[in-house]
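User: Design a sequence. Structure:
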């Protein structure tokens, strides 16, 4: 399953957005209001839980300076990645889009598609406000 957030404009340079996203504690600042739990586990891992959802541990898998940050599920139960693509549009201004890619069976995909789409759209919208 592949989902995309809307592309948002951020009033920060790509380097600043990249720096923000590589500090995992900053994800708490862009989480939806339905966040029930957020815990930094290490410099590259964090745990979060949204209302009515199980706890999920994300870890930074890879990154490309000032252009991309890839997070992935730390558990094989829900194998997915969340990629932030960052592009410069003007000095001190960039665009960011989140891409979700997961390997789920058809039934699971149907159940989680809408909540995940809403989740990545909210993350993206909140990222535009940093």
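Assistant: Done.
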């Amino acid at each position: 399953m592949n989902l995309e957030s809307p592309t948002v404009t951020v009033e920060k340079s790509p380097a600043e957005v990249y720096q923000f996203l590589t500090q995992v504690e900053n994800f708490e600042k862009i989480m939806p209001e339905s966040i029930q739990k957020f815990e930094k586990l290490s410099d590259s891992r964090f745990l979060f839980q949204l209302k009515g959802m199980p706890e999920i541990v994300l870890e930074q898998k890879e990154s490309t300076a000032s252009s991309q940050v890839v997070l992935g599920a730390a558990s094989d139960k829900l194998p997915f990645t969340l990629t932030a693509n960052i592009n410069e549009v003007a000095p001190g201004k960039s665009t960011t889009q989140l891409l979700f890619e997961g390997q789920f069976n058809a039934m699971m995909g149907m159940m989680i598609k809408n909540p995940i789409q809403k989740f990545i759209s909210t993350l993206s919208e909140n990222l535009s406000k940093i």
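The two ends are 28 Å apart (CA to CA). The chain has a mean pLDDT of 94.
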